[in-house]
Amino acid sequence: MTTAAVPPGAVTTAAEGTTSLVQSVDWLAIAPPVAVAATALIVLVADLFLPARRKPLLGALTIAGLLAALVLLVPLRDGDRSTFCLNEAAAGPGAADACSYTADHFALVIQALVLGGALLTALLSLADTRKLPAGEFWFLLLSSASGAVLLPAARDLATLVVALEVASLPAFALVGIKHGDRRSSEAALKFFLSSVVATAVMLLGVSFVYATTGTLHLTEIAARLDDVPGRLDTLAKAGVVLTLVGFAFKTAAAPFHFWVPDTYVGAPLPIAAYLSVVGKAVGFSGLILVTVIAFPAYADVWGPALAVLAALTMTIGNVAALRQGADRARSAVRLLAWSSVGQAGYLLVPIAAAAYSSDEHIGSTVAYALMYAVVNLGAFAVAALVARTSPGNRLTDYRGLYATRPLAALAMAFFLLCLAGLPPGIIGLFAKVTVFSAAVDAGLGWLAVVMAVNVVIALYYYLQWTATLFRAPEGTPAEAVGAGAPADGAVPVPTRHGVPAPLTAAIALTAVAGVLLSGAPQTVLRFAAVSLF
User: Fold this and answer.
1) Rg over CA atoms, the chain
2) pTM, to two decimals
3) Helix (H, G, I), strand (E, B), or coil: what is residue 53?
């Protein structure tokens, strides 16, 4: 009598030679999210015992945990590990390739982006947690990051939804963590309500997909949607559309974007930076997984829908950013919020293009996301620097920044030019060209035209902000005399305040990364191309 082959991950008993349904776990594959989650629990417990004067140690512990998770990505660089897989004994022949967690190149690149964004957020937060409950802040940040790290490796809808909610739920509390601040509470409420609606819609779509296919694994869904009975076709299409609508909320795609500006303005500035980068990475990686892996059979449904969403999102975001008043309180953060909506439109273009041609266009979205993460976090870091002396954070507060902090002004100018896609921000130009090429190659000429128009619109407000950095500061000799200053035209030198080392490090790291990527932009696309499934 012969013994049946042992399916992957299953355990064979020595005594009976039979296959057990108990699976082994590849702990190295899941090490990055586990390390972040374990650090969150350690921070939570340590907060109970540390005296108030030792609370800064929690921030250092958070950074150490995020660095450890980044290091744990190195042994996984081959991108060939999976765990929590179905086996033939439980699910029948052909099911052995369906896994719930896969550490492939796509997952590793997004995980590196998420961990890097969380690390820079932690650096920005070190100086701000003095006014916030430190223990709760670091625990919530790590909890959200653990869900964000898990999501790109998820390969079934249940794990995908759970990871998305683990990343989102702590973010609600982080947005409203400024106790007694009405603006913060209002932002958290808007963020919570919009996210709850998105989750409800997504779960309804997932239930329709499950009812149609009888499985939650993405690869199994793709195989079964290829041959859906006619009576279930409408249900399957409704499930696909509703699932995409749920992700559209998460990615701040229009018309599901209304929570973004108020949430960014009300949240602590480091959390606004976190949502603009890590939140978007989570939403877009989930959107890529469900469309390209699970729903290729319905590309004729989600392809045109995402193309329209991309055009609508980039147009609304850029036009709204163009209308921001320079004297309005927190207009700088509000402009960055609307700018992030416009950038989300560009990120949607290659995903829509994948419906009309090969999946290789997804690499353009990954490359653009890497560029956007670096320069947008840098812009928020400089905004945090300006907010230390100008809490209103108006666009007018940046006037003459070069005269008082030349290096910060040069870094901010570089970040804005990268977002605009102008030299010397070569990486921004390169990313926009790759996205534009994806639309043209897919035959979406009309979308390429809409993108070109929006790039021109964005140039105006990015260049206007850049020019403000180098204008003469308020109170030039002529203005000062008119305002009652000494007749000899002497102008008081602006007071320079010390900058915390972590904030300086965040600005320096993002600036150096942006310059290096601009020097070798092809490296980004090559790095992103190997991230495809």
Assistant:
1) 24
2) 0.88
3) helix
How many CB atoms are closer than 10 A to CB 525? Answer: 18
SS percent in the chain: helix, strand, coil, step 5: 70, 5, 25
Separation of alpha carbons 498 and 510, rounded Å: 20
**Are 345 and 312 contacting, i.e. CB atoms less than 8 angstroms apart?**
yes
In sequence order, the 6+-apart residues with CB closer than 8 A to the CB of 356 are: 299, 303, 442, 443, 444
Inter-CA distances, 42 with 35, 177, 411, 423, 532, Å:
10, 20, 36, 45, 34
Euclidean distance between CA atoms 419 and 376, whole angstroms: 8
Torsion sign across C-alpha atoms 193, 195, 196, 201: positive
Name the residue among 213, 241, 242, 216 with its Cα closest to residue 229: 213
Helix (H) or strand (E) holding 294: none
How far is it, in rounded angstroms, from Cα 215 to Cα 201? Answer: 19
Question: Distances from the Cα of 157 to the Cαs of 97, 199, 204, 291, in angstroms?
Answer: 16, 13, 12, 12
Q: Which two tokens stand for residue 52?
A: 């108030």
- Is-contact 401 465, C-beta < 8 A? no
10 strand-pairing partners? 23
89-130 pLDDT, tens digit each: 454 544 446 888 998 888 999 999 999 999 999 999 887 666
